[in-house]
Amino acid sequence: MTPTVLDDPHLHTPPAIDPGPGWGQSLANGALGPALLHLAAARSGNGTTEAARAWLDAATRTPVSSHPDGSLYCGAGALAYVLHTTAPAHPAIAELDAHIDTLVRTRLAAAHDRIEAGRLPAPSEFDVINGLTGIGAYLLARAPDSRRTADILTYLVRLTAPLHHDGDHLPGWWSLRAPLSRGAFPGGHANLGLAHGISGPLALLSLALRRGVTVAGQHRAITRICTWMDDWRATDTDGTSWPRWITRAQYRGAAPAETNPMRLAWCYGTPGQARAHHLAALATGDERRRDTAVAALAACAADADRIATMDGSLCHGRAGLLQCLRRAAADDPTATLACHLPDLEHQARAAACTGTPFLEGSSGRALALLPAAAHTSPWDTCLLITG
């Protein structure tokens, strides 16, 4: 085992006191990232259960949160995800699932009320990190044939229906909220990213369709999202890409779409977006879209100049790019993507991370760098790139 994977001393032992509120039950930034790492490593024979137990104990020092704002990355949903991914027979999961069922019913009722009233959503209603798509990814893995899984898919189908606002015929996922905690964003935006935008619902709908888990209108919803994103797809000398988001001025044709400054990121960039389209193509049998997605991913892997500027994280770093390519390569019968994996692994291993978080720190990078046996367990289902 290399020092950059499990021998990072910060990953050995959790702090004796939670660094902040909610830290224990946060998959994104707290104890559950290192817990997932050590559990996955132990399960594949590359680590010990003692370290995993220490981080799980830290995660449950305070009562498990069942707040309605909980998600795949926070509270009962996050803890259930970590346990199901690494120890699916764990007795605590049943109680956590009861909390998740209540959470889903509450959040879906609010979402449908919002749609009925003709209001636009906040990204946190539907996205991967905070919303129903993330919880849906857990349920698709845990209980694919359950009513709640179908309920979330049905909601996502409905999310794709257009809404009228201020004289514009907008996609149903258009939000008046500003992205990335930015200031004024007149007219709102449509987010195209995987973490907080419509690529997340696209990925979940497609993963479900590939598994034969379907609801009315699912295929049409996938096509609707893909077609809308096609209108904003750009191709240049560096390959195919999509913007992070579209503003109202851009939507109305009064301003050009941006060149994505996070082009190689899982969260807002081409790797996440292209993998979502790749999954859609595989689910619907769209060979042209599949080829476009594979070419876009290959171009990302070959972009040495941009890779050199990235950190080692999953969210917007080299580990995220590596994992997107790894999962897509497993679905690609050619060597177009697989041939890039050794170099991407080397690049991810050489990059630094700050702290232990799963998304932006060393535990996420270490998971991506575990030996191949660890990747037979879908620890990255929460990234919506496999399932």
UniProtKB/TrEMBL annotation:
Keywords: Metal-binding, Zinc. Zn(2+) binds at residues 267, 315-316. CDD domains: LanC. Residues 1-25 are annotated as: Disordered. It comes from the Bacteria. GO terms for molecular function: metal ion binding. GO terms for biological process: peptide modification. This is Lanthionine synthetase. It comes from Streptomonospora salina.
